[in-house]
Amino acid sequence: MKQLKIGMHLSISGSLDRAVDRAHELGCDTFQIFTRNPRGWIGRRLEPVEVEAFRRKVEHYGVDPVFAHMPYLPNLASPKDSVYRRSVKVLQVELERCEVLGIPFLVTHLGSHLGAGKSKGRERVVSAINRSLSTVRNDVVLLLENSAGTKNSVGSYIHEIGEIMTNLDEVERVGFCFDTCHAYAAGYDLKTLHGLREVIEQLDQYIGLDKLRVVHLNDSKGGLGSRIDRHEHIGMGRIGEEGFINILRSRLSKVPLILETPVDNRRSARENLGKVRELWKIAQEVEA
Predict the structure, then answer these.
(1) Which of 43, 77, 98, 99 is the most core-located residue (most Cβ within 10 A)?
(2) Candidates 231, 233, 238, 249; catalytic one
(3) Residue 145: active-site member
(4) For 124-174, what is each residue's pLDDT tens digit?
(5) What are the percentages of helix, strand and coil residues in the chain, rounded to 5?
(6) Active-site residue (options: 72, 266, 271, 277)
């Protein structure tokens, strides 16, 4: 039987190494964090004691790989020079912080062109990534995440991300993060096996399945093609349990799965993980 590797995006409240404890307590196989407060431009300094504790706990618990996510404010597609320069700097700093922490993957949204046009937005993203990777020479892999098709967004469609990758100087240092909520909202039918086959064919054609390094496994509050970026608990949204059974039967389940489900009193993180494992068992029985 195939192995399932699943985890959550977890809080770093208290200290970074507490996220590793939380991952272990929840029974995660993998996890994702922000390396600092995601709502500001400047992050606090990484303390050596905290770094050592983080690395030691990851190794001790064997919860890996670890994924970091870029903070909210940077916009790699921005036509505004001041915002763009700060965004590129944050990307470079986050690549460096990942290296210090021993985190092999950094996930980033591609941003918004703010009306300047998709072509201009893609050019800005390519330049930002090329500049950052040429400045920061390490082994951290940058993962480009698809967006939900919201107004002016860059990277909502698989062929668009493929075009960006084609123009990168060091594409071997870049991979793909596929978000199921974002894809469904952007118009990719993930509920049916036929729709999933088409998605996987496009992934293989435009990006390469070897570039798929993680899936953000989230249900969607919005309907197919709604362009609404609102995550929902697994099986409680418009993708639904049947959709996730199909996803878990597909090629998408062969990479680490990270849940970014809502934090509310309807269902806990542990219960969402349990729901995925329950649907995984059903998916395996269907395959058998």
Answers:
(1) 77
(2) 231
(3) yes
(4) 999 999 999 999 999 999 999 999 999 999 999 999 999 999 999 999 999
(5) 45, 15, 40
(6) 72
Is 72 a catalytic site residue? yes
Q: How far is CA 89 from CA 47, 73, 108, 278, in A?
A: 20, 12, 13, 42
Q: Does the annotation count 260 as an active-site position?
A: yes
- Residue type at 238? R
Q: Assess whether 216 carries a catalytic annotation.
A: yes
Query: Is domain 6-287 given the CATH code 3.40.50.980 in the classification?
Result: no
Among 97, 216, 238, 249, which one carries the catalytic annotation?
Answer: 216
pLDDT digits (tens, 9 = 90+) for 5-36: 999 999 999 999 999 999 999 999 999 999 99
Question: Active site includes 179?
Answer: yes
Residue 59 annotated in active site? no
Q: Which residue has the tokens 């941003």?
A: 111
Nearest to 127 by CA among 90, 176, 95, 164: 164
Q: What is the residue extent of each domain of the chain?
A: 6-287
Measured CA to CA, the distance from residue 249 to residue 193 in angstroms comes to 9
Torsion over CA: 203, 206, 212, 217 (sign):
negative
Alpha-carbon distance 211 to 253, whole Å? Answer: 14
